[in-house]
């Protein structure tokens, strides 16, 4: 058994191996504070699983079966966070599948396990026999009172204006993901530089672990390419591919490439039998080489744009007449239909994981239907990609969303991607920003997202603003940056090469800002600020504060009373602190519900006059309801100044009658008078 330790952020991080899961190709036990993860790596394309055991936080699963079920949103996002940086670190033609499995075994409520999962994944792969261009380190960077903090605790993150997960090797950055409160580009670069210092220490720790217990790596024999086949494919396809690669439209380009592929396969079928796979590989290599040469040498792109040009952008708002807010954002052949819907506290989304049960009053759902790329597939709910893209866009918009205290609505955003040619998550940010304004939600300012790509050969490289599908697929980087005119709110960087220098990253951020400013100007022409009033279709919310002792009266036995109130057409929600939220689209139902609640919770006052309703008639008087659920006795002697022989001679059941409260005894019984309001 081997155990190594390192202090980061004022706390000890340890990596241990040789004790648990010894049949895996690589297994490590990583502990930070009292948070523990077990990470295993096996030869098994790459699969990363991240599972939180309920017992890690001293909990029993809350579902009906009382055991862990399908991965939660948090688990899915953590798995993607680990997958992205390690994926480019394997040999391109590794013949085995690989599975990295992260199990959260103990959770202390302060140290998030995802960063340990990433460190553990690198350590497990590094000591295994699986070829891996690591080790890698990972650190979460925060900034509190202007000072950067390594791996801030969950409590510290409440005071941080930055939360960025940085992963890298000893000399480069591999992935970046996180959010910020409109941070400047240079500040973000400084945060990465700070984080990389911690990463370098983590890499050293793992190198020591590898030196002590590392296994000999598998030797992967490279496939020999038949030079005669390569030459034959090039002679038939190279010129045609160069022409097809310069087709501005996605569909036209793909149709021409498909036709070239079919022609080449048919022409070479007899000469090179059973060679469909290597022929297709050669065609893809020609496509990639031509596009990269075009960018690096000709300084142009497949659709004819300059390297720093943004695709044509169009924006429309109020495209759906009965929604609360809507927008259609189109950039090139990527299009997002975005809708904002307002709800009440009852519409909050619950999250239940190791951090506990909590409710979100703002959330965003991203949908990528198959028709957006002209495909057919069965819908089986949101996948990892949908959840990841939605989370990035949600995080990008969060800094401009008004607080619940100033805007007591639940906000749900939905982005349906109707066309896609890359950067659909950034189109979602732009479209949802416009939808928020269209709904009249008082957002601080507009938010826009832009993608930046990279083509790098040796020391030569070019950055591409607003990449499209082929540039994403054949390029080396997909950097997504969202922000306002004042700074960055969210970022995500995925690369296909094994690391990126900070200088290139800084240039990419500057390029993203230029693109963001261009698109923000177009968005401002469409809608520059939130509409002055909420949509006429949005609910109107009122609040009533009652004494906690009267909550039961408002709800009633088995919810009977509150159901009667909701027959007005209003939605009513009662909080434990006595705050009652009343919501309705029209003003009338909310006003009627308020009147009923105030009546139920009001206290009768001695000397005050009330309009009551006779509920029961007795020989000695009548019981009159002066407030909902509150009755008093109107004695026969208090009906009139004259003598009354029979109560029925003056009032009957169901009659309305004005009364005055004469007395309320210690038991709450009321004595009423009608004659006190009559002239003698």
General description of the model:
The longest helix is centred in the first third of the chain and has 29 residues, at 185-213. An eight-stranded antiparallel β-sheet has the order 8-7-9-10-21-20-18-19, with helices on both faces. A six-stranded mixed β-sheet has the order 1-2-3-4-6-5. The chain has a five-stranded mixed β-sheet with strand order 11-12-13-17-16. The protein is 31% helix and 30% strand. It has 680 residues and is α+β, with helices and mostly antiparallel strands. The protein has five domains: 2-213, Ribosomal Protein S5, domain 2 (2-Layer Sandwich); 227-298, Arc Repressor Mutant, subunit A (Orthogonal Bundle); 313-526, GHMP Kinase, N-terminal domain (Ribosomal Protein S5, domain 2), CATH 3.30.230; 540-601, K Homology domain, type 1 (Ribosomal Protein S8, Chain: A, domain 1, 2-Layer Sandwich); 609-677, OB fold (Dihydrolipoamide Acetyltransferase, E2P), CATH 2.40.50. Helix 1 (73-86) runs parallel beside helix 2 and helix 2 crosses helix 4. The model has no long low-confidence stretch (mean pLDDT 90).
């Amino acid at each position: 058994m081997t155990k190594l330790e390192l202090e980061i952020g004022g706390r000890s991080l340890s990596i241990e191996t040789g004790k648990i899961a010894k049949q895996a190709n690589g297994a490590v036990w990583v502990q930070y504070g009292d948070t523990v993860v077990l990470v295993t790596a096996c030869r098994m394309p790459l699969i990363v699983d991240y599972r939180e055991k309920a017992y890690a936080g001293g909990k029993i699963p809350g579902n009906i079966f009382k055991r862990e079920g399908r991965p939660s949103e948090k688990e899915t996002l953590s798995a993607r966070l680990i997958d992205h940086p390690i994926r480019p670190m394997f040999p391109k033609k590794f013949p085995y599948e690989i599975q990295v499995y992260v199990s959260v075994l103990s959770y202390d409520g302060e140290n998030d396990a995802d960063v340990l999962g990433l460190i553990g994944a690198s350590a497990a792969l590094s000591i295994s026999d699986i070829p891996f261009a690591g080790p890698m380190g990972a650190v979460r960077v925060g900034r509190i009172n202007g000072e950067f903090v390594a791996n801030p605790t969950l409590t510290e993150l409440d005071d941080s204006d930055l939360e960025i997960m940085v992963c890298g090797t000893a000399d480069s950055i591999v992935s970046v993901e996180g959010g910020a409160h409109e941070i400047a580009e240079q500040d973000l670069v400084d945060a990465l530089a700070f984080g990389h210092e911690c990463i370098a220490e983590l890499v050293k720790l793992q190198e020591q672990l590898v030196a002590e217990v590392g296994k000999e790596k598998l030797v992967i024999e490279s496939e020999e390419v038949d030079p005669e086949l390569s030459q034959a494919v090039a002679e038939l396809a190279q010129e045609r591919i160069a022409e097809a690669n310069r087709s501005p439209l996605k569909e036209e380009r793909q149709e021409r490439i498909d036709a070239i592929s079919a022609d080449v396969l048919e022409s070479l079928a007899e000469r090179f039998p059973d060679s469909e796979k290597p022929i297709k590989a050669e065609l893809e290599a020609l496509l990639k080489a031509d596009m990269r040469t075009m960018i690096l040498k000709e300084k142009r792109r497949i659709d004819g744009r300059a390297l720093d040009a943004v695709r044509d952008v169009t924006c429309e708002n109020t495209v759906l007449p009965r929604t609360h807010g809507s927008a259609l954002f189109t950039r090139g052949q990527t299009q997002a239909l975005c809708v904002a819907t307002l709800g009440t506290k009852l519409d909050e989304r619950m999250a239940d994981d190791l951090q506990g049960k909590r409710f979100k009053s703002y959330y965003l759902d991203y949908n990528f239907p198959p028709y957006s790329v002209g495909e057919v597939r069965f819908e089986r709910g949101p996948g990892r990609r949908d959840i990841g893209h939605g989370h990035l866009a949600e995080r990008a918009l969060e800094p401009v969303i008004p607080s619940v205290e100033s805007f007591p609505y639940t906000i749900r955003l939905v982005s349906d991607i109707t066309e896609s040619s890359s950067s659909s998550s950034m189109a979602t940010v732009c479209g949802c920003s416009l939808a928020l304004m269209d709904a009249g939600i008082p957002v601080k300012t507009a938010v826009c997202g832009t993608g930046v790509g990279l083509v790098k050969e040796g020391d030569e490289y070019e950055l591409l603003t607003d990449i499209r599908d082929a540039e994403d697929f054949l390029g080396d980087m997909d950097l997504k940056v969202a922000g306002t005119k004042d700074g960055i709110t969210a970022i995500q960087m995925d690369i296909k090469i094994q690391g990126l220098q900070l200088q290139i990253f800084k240039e990419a951020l500057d390029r993203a800002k230029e693109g963001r400013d261009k698109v923000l100007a177009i968005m401002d022409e469409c809608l520059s600020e939130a509409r002055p009033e909420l949509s006429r279709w949005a609910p109107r919310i009122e609040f009533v504060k009652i004494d906690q002792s009267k909550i039961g009266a408002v709800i009633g036995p088995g919810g009977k009373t509150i159901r009667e109130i909701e027959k007005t057409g209003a939605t009513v929600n009662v909080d434990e602190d006595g705050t009652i939220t009343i919501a309705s689209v029209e003003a009338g139902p909310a006003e009627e519900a308020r009147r009923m609640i105030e009546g139920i919770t009001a206290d009768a006052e001695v000397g005050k006059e009330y309009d009551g309703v006779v509920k029961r008639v007795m020989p000695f008087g009548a019981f009159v309801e002066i407030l909902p659920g509150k009755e008093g006795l109107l004695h026969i002697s208090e009906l009139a100044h004259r003598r009354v022989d029979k109560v029925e001679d003056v009032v009957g059941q169901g009659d309305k009658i004005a009364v005055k409260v004469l007395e309320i005894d210690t038991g709450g019984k009321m004595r009423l008078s009608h004659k006190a309001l009559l002239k003698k």
